[in-house]
Amino acid sequence: MNKDQLLISKLQDVNIKKSAFSELVAGYQERLYWHIRKIVLNHDDTDDVLQNTFLKAWKGIENFRAESGLFTWLYRIATNESLTFLEQKKRKAMSGISEVNEYLIENLETDPFFDGDEAQLKLQKAIASLPDKQRLVFNMRYFDDMKYQDMEKILETSEGALKASYHHAVKKIEEHLKSGS
Amino acid sequence: MKEEKNIKSPLEGLSKGNPFKTPEGYFENLQDRIEANIEAETTTVSRKTRVIRILRPALSLAASFALVFLLVYYPLNKFLPEYLSSNQKTEVTEINHEEDFLTAFMDESSLYETLLQDDEEPELQSEEVYALLSVEMTEYDLYTELIKN
Description:
The structure holds 2 protein chains of 2 kinds. Chain A is about 75% helix and about 0% strand. By secondary structure, chain A is mainly α. Chain A folds into 2 domains: about 100 residues, Rna Polymerase Sigma Factor, Chain: A (Orthogonal Bundle), CATH 1.10.1740; about 70 residues, Winged helix-like DNA-binding domain superfamily/Winged helix DNA-binding domain (Arc Repressor Mutant, subunit A), CATH 1.10.10.10. Chain A starts with a helix and ends with a helix. The radius of gyration of chain B is 45 Å and the shape is elongated.
């Protein structure tokens, strides 16, 4: 039994679920934070989504089947929660924001916890202008060096489709950076 | 074609470093906040479950009554409206019978008199009131005098 399987069996035991969950949070909180942060960009939004992610994990752990690893399962929850959050923000937005991308760019410009230089801000704006799927694939591949096989499980998309998404994303970002907008 | 490939991608010159930061000490208490949030959520859910468990018998009883009412009254009202209206008429007649029974032993004038008798009070003339007030009397004397009249 590997480390993940051991943790899963502890999480599904009602008597030690709490302490096992603390172990899970300690092991994944930072990785999940950065994964979510790259999707929603703003720190406060990330904090909300992260809380929801762990809450969903807590509620769903009894039904978790170990076919996919803990890492894949948590990343999938975090990704879905982030996209749902952005969709809700778009719907609730009173400032006439029609697209998620506009909300993200606004977030970048107003986020006091963005510490990058001008070139990085430009890159992030280019990423924010991509469609959801391409944005996710680009972030996971470019910044996290994640393998396509792992991405395949998290995003439930074929490797071919993921490679195509990455390729399109890179092209669009390059164009965006060249155009200087 | 070769030339195209040799053109440097604008991405190559960029840093892959993380441009984002968090508030100071954010990760230090993050675990506590996550666990507190889960604890709060679990408590709220169990409280809700408890209330539902307490109310369940009453709710099922109410639902059964509503169901029986719907199953009986609605089809009757829909398919046999005459039957329902005739039932209502019978009730009214029964009440009328009851009233008849109560008034059977007296005629109208004696009933009117009986009703008036209770409300009638002796009228006091203004001179009498003045005379009564001008005499030095205790409250008790005043009361007995009024009773006599």
